[in-house]
Amino acid sequence: MRNNPRSIIAIVPAAGIGSRMGADKPKQYLMLGQQSILAHTLDTLFAHPEIEQVIVALHPQDHYFSQLPQSQHPKLIQVVGGGERADSVLAALDYVYSHHPDAWALVHDAARPCVTLTDISRLIESVDIYPQGAILAAPVRDTMKRSDASGHIVNTVDRTLLWHALTPQFFPASILRRHLSAALAAQAPITDEASAMEWAGVMPGLVSGRVDNIKVTHPDDLQLAVLFMSQQ
Ligand SMILES: Nc1ccn([C@@H]2O[C@H](COP(=O)(O)OP(=O)(O)OP(=O)(O)O)[C@@H](O)[C@H]2O)c(=O)n1
Ligand SMILES: C[C@](O)(CO)[C@H](O)COP(=O)(O)O
């Protein structure tokens, strides 16, 4: 049991266009069973008892979201996302900073609909061990190769301490906002919240998460997500 309950606000970057999916709509609006990828993701975050609000960052021309029942949820706040995922997260962090400056931000990709309440709880509870913040991650299981530009193996990479970064990623919102904003201003390559914290010299914790918490990115990920959702 955590010894210092804190205000937790989920941030869902959902302003992407899903170019790698190649669908006729942004991938977060593709159906997984009875509802869209984004709807599944939001329902899970709404259901977690420690998450007080859910901020979704949407594409400025998004005309799908208002059709989701989830768009009317009392916990939901909408903000306009930016050109990159990090810009969308920062837009949501700006809202948190101005309304709940002492909150913790739990940032979770819209495109990861298979996340479980148990994994979210384990990440939240991990701050007793990692007060600087932490992320869900999956240890690498395969032999890892580095290639050259023409697709030839250059070398085998030691996988002993390699992890796949997942989401949610969980940090004090005001600190994350400060470091993410500074990292972007410095044009640092930021692809997740942890990389912004690392850029600022923070060493986030790693919490081992389920490997079925996949990011739906390419067409073949859809059937995988359907399978995983059916088994939860
Ligand atoms: N400017 C952006 C780009 C991405 N995202 C979100 O960040 C998450 C992870 O990004 P990714 O899987 O790369 O989604 P897309 O950017 O939509 O995919 P692609 O790179 O294939 O276009 C997704 O939920 C996506 O909606 C966002 O909020 N704002
Ligand atoms: C945040 C993330 O899902 C962690 O693995 C990943 O970095 C998102 O990368 P993308 O290129 O924006 O999909």
UniProtKB/TrEMBL annotation:
<dbReference type="Pfam" id="PF01128">
    <property type="entry name" value="IspD"/>
</dbReference>
<keyword id="KW-0548">Nucleotidyltransferase</keyword>
<feature type="site" description="Positions MEP for the nucleophilic attack">
    <location>
        <position position="215"/>
    </location>
</feature>
<comment type="function">
    <text>Catalyzes the formation of 4-diphosphocytidyl-2-C-methyl-D-erythritol from CTP and 2-C-methyl-D-erythritol 4-phosphate (MEP).</text>
</comment>
<feature type="site" description="Transition state stabilizer">
    <location>
        <position position="27"/>
    </location>
</feature>
<dbReference type="InterPro" id="IPR050088">
    <property type="entry name" value="IspD/TarI_cytidylyltransf_bact"/>
</dbReference>
<dbReference type="InterPro" id="IPR034683">
    <property type="entry name" value="IspD/TarI"/>
</dbReference>
<dbReference type="InterPro" id="IPR001228">
    <property type="entry name" value="IspD"/>
</dbReference>
<dbReference type="GO" id="GO:0050518">
    <property type="term" value="F:2-C-methyl-D-erythritol 4-phosphate cytidylyltransferase activity"/>
</dbReference>
<keyword id="KW-0808">Transferase</keyword>
<keyword id="KW-0414">Isoprene biosynthesis</keyword>
<protein>
    <recommendedName>
        <fullName>2-C-methyl-D-erythritol 4-phosphate cytidylyltransferase</fullName>
        <ecNumber>2.7.7.60</ecNumber>
    </recommendedName>
</protein>
<feature type="site" description="Positions MEP for the nucleophilic attack">
    <location>
        <position position="159"/>
    </location>
</feature>
<dbReference type="InterPro" id="IPR029044">
    <property type="entry name" value="Nucleotide-diphossugar_trans"/>
</dbReference>
<comment type="pathway">
    <text>Isoprenoid biosynthesis; isopentenyl diphosphate biosynthesis via DXP pathway; isopentenyl diphosphate from 1-deoxy-D-xylulose 5-phosphate: step 2/6.</text>
</comment>
<feature type="site" description="Transition state stabilizer">
    <location>
        <position position="20"/>
    </location>
</feature>
<comment type="similarity">
    <text>Belongs to the IspD/TarI cytidylyltransferase family. IspD subfamily.</text>
</comment>
